[in-house]
Specification:
Elements: E1 8-11, H1 17-33, E2 51-56, E3 59-61, E4 69-71, H2 86-95, E5 104-110, E6 116-119, E7 131-137, E8 139-144, E9 154-158, E10 163-166, E11 175-181, E12 193-199
Antiparallel strand pairs: 1-10, 2-5, 3-4, 5-12, 6-11, 7-10, 7-12, 8-9, 8-11
Bound molecules: N-(carboxycarbonyl)-S-(naphthalen-2-ylmethyl)-L-cysteine (MD3) and fe (iii) ion.
């Protein structure tokens, strides 16, 4: 039983099965209006293995030409992102202790073989607000270290319905998803994992 880094709070099984199903239905509505797309790495253009979309006033994406960024519209449709579902805003209000609503909700979809390399989230102007992450579907192995890439990391599983909050010291910690465990959840008919990440992007 390893200790989570300072500032990392895990709420195992925070969402009941029915709440998870409701959230998946909301994600499906978002994806109908803002289809999943593949971001590519700055400069190299190498595609990420995760497919993504967003809801909220700002969405995160990356491409070869313009790199990591937040923008107000979908890269393919040009439409504004759909609003963040009320159920997610309620989770933010309950857990974050932050007086302002999240601006961005990144929706990551991991197929069986998708991963996310060790990285920091530093495309936001606001590191005071916490980051809230909701896991749905198949379990994943999450890895988190310190503020330097070479700091030692600890790994733990994130299961469907778990909510994690990163604030303070862990807000700039390196982290990633090492692997997905196929067949560990029945929530998504096609399998795989959805992660929803709520963030403040701008200074107030
Ligand atoms: C630790 N997503 O989208 S969420 C990302 O499961 C991202 O899809 C992973 O990392 C996923 O950037 C992990 C949990 C998370 C989110 C933000 C963090 C962990 C974090 C920020 C700082 C430290
Ligand atoms: Fe991240």
């Amino acid at each position: 039983m390893q200790k989570l880094p300072d500032g990392t709070l895990l709420f195992p099984d925070f969402l009941k099965k029915q709440e998870q199903e409701q959230l998946v239905a909301s994600v499906r509505d978002v994806v109908k209006r803002a289809p999943l797309f593949i971001s590519t790495m700055p400069k190299t253009g190498k595609p990420m293995s995760v497919r993504m979309t967003n809801c909220g006033t700002l969405g995160w994406l990356s491409d070869k030409e313009n790199g990591y960024r937040y923008q107000a519209h979908h890269p393919q449709t040009g439409n504004a992102w759909p609003p963040i579902p009320d159920q997610l805003l309620a989770i933010w209000d309950e857990l974050s202790g932050y007086a302002h609503s999240p601006q961005a909700c990144l929706i990551n979809y991991y197929g069986t073989d998708a991963k996310m390399g060790l990285h920091q989230d530093r495309d936001e102007q606001n590191f005071d607000a916490p980051v809230l992450s909701v896991s749905l579907g198949d379990s994943a192995l999450f890895r988190v270290g310190g503020e330097n890439r070479t700091d030692k990391t600890t790994s733990f599983k994130l299961n469907s319905g778990d909510v994690m909050m990163l604030s303070g010291k862990s807000r700039l910690a390196f982290h990633g998803i090492s692997r997905i465990y196929p067949g560990t959840s029945m929530l998504l008919k096609q399998g795989g994992r959805i992660n929803l990440t709520l963030r403040r992007v701008t200074e107030l």
